[in-house]
Amino acid sequence: MSATVVVGCQWGDEGKGKLTDLLAREMQMVVRYQGGHNAGHTVVVNGRTFALQLLPSGVLYHHVTPVIGNGVVVDPKVLLEEMAALTAAGVDCSRLVVSGGAHLIMPYHQELDALTERYLGRNKLGTTKRGIGPAYADKSARVGIRVQDLLDPKIFREKLDVVLKEKNLILAKVYNRLPLSASDIADRYLDEYAPKLAPFIGDTVGLIGDALAAGHDVLLEGAQATFLDLDHGTYPFVTSSNPVAGGACVGAGIGPLSVTSVIGVAKAYVTRVGSGPFVTELHDETGDLLVERGREYGTNTGRRRRTGWLDAVMLRQAARLNSLSELALTKLDVLDTFETLKVCVAYESEGRRYDRMPYHQTVLHKATPVYEELPGWQADTSAATELHHLPAAAKDYVHFVSEQCGVPIKLVGVGPGRDQFVRFAS
Ligand code: GDP
Ligand code: IMO
Ligand code: MG
To answer: What is the pLDDT of residue 425?
Structure first.
């Protein structure tokens, strides 16, 4: 019985898709446990790029059962489009199982996400405007509509009627928008989406539990990341779910003792999309160079990512919060041209040094980084496949990061391709 969690250790886009794809070779099942199509997970296979939003990155292998767990929020239109696009690209999606307990993203969620952002003005969170926050809010408020409700038109219409009354009042009275029609929405969800999705809806808790009991290897693929976690991230500049490893148990429906290993993913530097504190952020040409060399634009939204030096304070916190067994450090190749590199080892604020993530957000907003400088290697690492192919300075950088966060780094990414990983034993 073995469940492995893949979890982002920064603010997302660390390369979880690529790592999941690599690990999925040895897995029988890959499960998405939270988030929705705010995620964009890139897998590059033989020069072909797949940008997955809702489907687990293991879908590209025939031997893997891809599962969308109860903790995910599902926009059925997006899911069907993604399945159609993958099928057209020759990927077999027929093994997909979607939890009946997952919540649906409804048209009013997406509209309210965009309206709230506009209402917040310069305090906006910079969400992906996909309806994620409003869908999870309705789940907590117990007025959400679930995937299983697609299979029961009477229940679906009843729930929609109740919830839409309130949503339409908000849309009209708060935001001066036109009301939405319950029958239009119900017709679309029940007549168009439900028949197409019905064959894929199932009891994922039973399925995952049986797989584990049968001794299969199950990979739990996190979306977003530790510092976008609703409880542990830089609130309120977070997403509305729990990407941390603990969230995998809730969002897939397994007990904590089933998890045998937790693999963190971090970039060799840091990026962030959307608003919120970012202690090591660079607003200079070094930051621009990271954007350019790392192609730091959102996988699905196309937004330019903010960039900065690697932050070991964040990684130490991520190691604790997720019980990391190991770390995969991606995009080392992006640092190939730099003469010197900086790693933030602590924060400083109002004369005080913080080696650990300060609990009070105000400190984080004001903190300045304490850097250690390391020599760059100024050599192309993208063709490296083995440890001895890497320059000594590159290996030293990896070892330094590993020591700083107290977690072994076993895989280092040197390019977007499926096999562009170097195995380390640190
Ligand atoms: P995810 O959301 O964590 O799955 O990450 P994304 O796919 O959104 O963003 C990571 C980006 O970096 C994608 O474009 C990947 O193809 C790319 N990538 C992943 N690992 C590496 C690496 O080691 N080197 C380089 N140069 N690119 C990488
Ligand atoms: P993957 O899985 C990076 C960010 C948004 C915004 C905040 C809240 O590809 O790493 P939301 O739409 O979730 O309510 O937005 O979270 N965000 C991500 N940033 N990668 C992601 O996913 C993200 N998903 C959400 O930019 O700041
Ligand atoms: Mg991404």
So the answer is: 74
Q: Collect residues with CB below 5 Å from ion ligand 3.
A: 13, 40, 299
Distance, in Å, from the CA atom of 313 to the CA atom of 345, rounded to the nearest integer, reads 6
* Beta strand residue intervals within 69-108, DSSP E: 73-74, 97-99, 103-104
CA 415 to CA 333: how far, in whole Å? Answer: 6
Reported as a pLDDT band with limits 50, 70 and 90, residue 300 is: confident
> Among this protein's residues, is 41 annotated catalytic?
yes
Q: Which atom of ligand 1 is nearest to the CA of 412?
A: 23
Distances (CA, A) of 382 to 81, 221, 308, 334, 335: 34, 25, 21, 9, 11
Residue nearest to atom 7 of ligand 1 (CA): 42
Identify the pLDDT of residue 301.
Answer: 82
- Two structure tokens written together for 421: 């990983």
Could you tell me whether strands 217-221 and 29-32 are parallel, antiparallel, or unpaired per DSSP bridges?
Answer: parallel
Give the residue-averaged pLDDT of 84-94. Answer: 97
Average pLDDT over residues 290-300: 93
* Residue 72 pLDDT class (50, 70, 90 cuts): very high
Torsions phi, psi for 412 (to 5 deg): -130, 125
Q: Is 133 in the pocket of ligand 2 (CB under 6 A)?
A: yes
The answer to whether the pTM exceeds 0.85 is yes
Query: DSSP strand E in 239-335: where?
Result: 259-267, 270-272, 306-308, 310-311, 326-330
Tokens standing for 395? 């290996």
Q: Would you place residue 299 in the very low, low, confident or very high pLDDT band (cuts 50, 70, 90)?
A: confident
- Is 13 annotated in the active site? yes
Ligand 3 center–CA 300 separation, angstroms: 8
385 HSE (CA, 13 A, CB side): 3
Compute the distance from residue 244 Cα to the ligand 3 centre, in Å: 16
At residue 426 the predicted structure's pLDDT band, cuts being 50, 70 and 90, is low
Rounded CA-CA distance 344/268 in Å is 12
